[in-house]
Write a structure and sequence with these properties.
Helices cover 35% and strands 20% of the residues. The chain has 209 residues and is an alpha/beta fold. A hairpin with a 5-residue loop joins β3 and β4.
């Protein structure tokens, strides 16, 4: 159960944020309050970009060798929010605002996982996936696609996407998929990776329930 905390101010990027003592819970990509789950010793709710509220720990997780996650989204608000959430979880975050930028950045920085928006100008998520899969450096990098349209999935799977989250998406659901895919990212057989990923995801979700 999330403990109530006293009202306080936290200095963060973009100015001070105010703790909300009575938060609600919903999902990123919609309206309302947004929950960043995790085994936090002292969670606090704070105002984030454009009125979004995010639960953050007082101290971010620290990883000896942080995995690099590339976030690709043309909406700055979503990029910044996901970057904050993943940074809190201890990941190193790379940001790209479109598919072409993502391909160039991935070739230089070799991310361990990509979170990719489906609908972007210049090059959409499916085209970006095809291009990432055609490059030696990124042909096996796990890709999670964020989409608001169920009909996008068949085409995206054909391009090589590993999994999906649908807008508005639940943060705990996304983080579970990130953790599971990172655990199996070294598996370079599509069928074996899919089976291993399914097993890892079930275990993570069951342990969280």
């Amino acid at each position: 159960m999330i403990r109530k905390v006293a009202r306080r101010r936290i200095a963060t990027r973009g100015g001070p944020r105010h703790v909300n003592e009575n938060p609600g819970i919903s999902a990123i990509g919609g309206n309302g309050d947004h929950l960043c789950p995790g085994p936090y010793s002292s969670p606090v709710w704070v105002n984030s970009v454009r009125g979004t509220r995010v639960l953050v720990p007082l101290e971010p997780r620290k990883r000896a060798m942080p995995d690099k996650i590339l976030i690709v989204d043309d909406e700055q608000t979503i990029r910044e929010l996901l970057a904050e959430l993943l940074s809190i979880e201890g990941y190193e975050v790379l940001l790209a605002s479109n598919g072409r930028e993502a391909i160039q950045l991935a070739a230089r920085k070799a991310p361990h996982l990509v979170i990719l928006d489906a609908n972007m100008p210049e090059m959409d998520g499916i085209q970006t996936t095809w291009e990432l899969r055609s490059q030696h450096e990124t042909c096996w990098v796990p890709i999670i696609m964020v989409t608001a349209f169920a009909e996008t999935r068949t085409e995206a799977l054909h391009a090589g996407v590993d999994d999906f989250v649908t807008k508005p998406f639940d943060v705990s659901n996304l983080l579970a998929r990130v953790r599971a895919l990172l655990k199996v990212r070294h598996v370079e057989d599509e069928v074996k990776r899919a089976l291993a990923y399914s097993q890892e995801l079930r275990e993570i979700l069951s342990s969280a329930s």
